Amino acid sequence: MLLPLFVSQAERKRRQAWVVTLLSSFIMTVVGTWYFVRLWVSNGDILNPTDDIKLDHVDTAIARGISLFFLAYCVVDMVLAALFYNEEAGVAYEHHTLYIIIVGVLYKKKLPLLFAIGALEEFPTLLLSIYELMGDRRPRLSTGMMILTSRISYHLYVTYKCIAADVMNPGLFLVS
Questions:
Q1: Cβ neighbours of residue 171 closer than 8 Å, sequence gap 6 or more
Q2: Of 1, 72, 120, 131, which has fewest CB within 10 angstroms of its CB?
Q3: Among candidate residues 22, 7, 38, the one with its CA nearest the CA of residue 161
Q4: What is the sign, positive or negative, of the torsion defined by CA atoms of 63, 65, 71, 77?
């Protein structure tokens, strides 16, 4: 509310671009943490449910819901960017379009669990959006390296679990 009093219009516009990202990355991080814990505790068996480890209707519904939520976020963020802060969007259009395709394919193949497990990869984006909204411009290189390293490390772990479970087209997950 007091933001207009303390920052320039350009700075306010730049920060507004991060509000939707903050909310989305928070939800994705919470859901992703739940599925990461499930993946860890089951030693990857959640990827290939047996009689001992079954996905109940709630797990399935949450995985499907978070996939639809992220699809909606990508579309809404692109529309808001086009309408209000196009100059701040950068590569968001290409990035979001790629995610719409990947998540859409996973959803159509009835594999939203892969996306739900990967939702934890939004944690670095949550941190970045907090810094951006506070006006704290972290060095781009170090922030980018932190995001890249954490996402790649987690992605490799989950991909390894997919390959070990011999399930769910790990090739598709690897390129996402």
A1: none
A2: 1
A3: 38
A4: negative
Tokens 């529309």 appear where? 79
Q: What are phi and psi of 44, to 5 degrees?
A: 90, -5
**Number of neighbours of residue 47 by Cβ within 10 angstroms:** 25
pLDDT by residue (tens digit) across 31-40?
999 999 988 8
In this model, does residue 137 exceed pLDDT 70? no
**Domain range for 20:** 3-175
Taking the model in full, what pTM does it have? 0.79
DSSP secondary structure letters along 65-123: HHHHHHHHHHHHHHHHHHHH-GGG-TTHHHHHHHHHHHHHHHHHTT-HHHHHHHGGGGH
As given in the structure block, the two tokens for residue 123 are 């944690």
| Nearest by Cα to 112 from 142, 150, 67, 157 | 67
How many domains is the chain partitioned into structurally? 1
Determine the Cα–Cα distance for residues 136 and 134; give it in Å rounded to an integer: 5
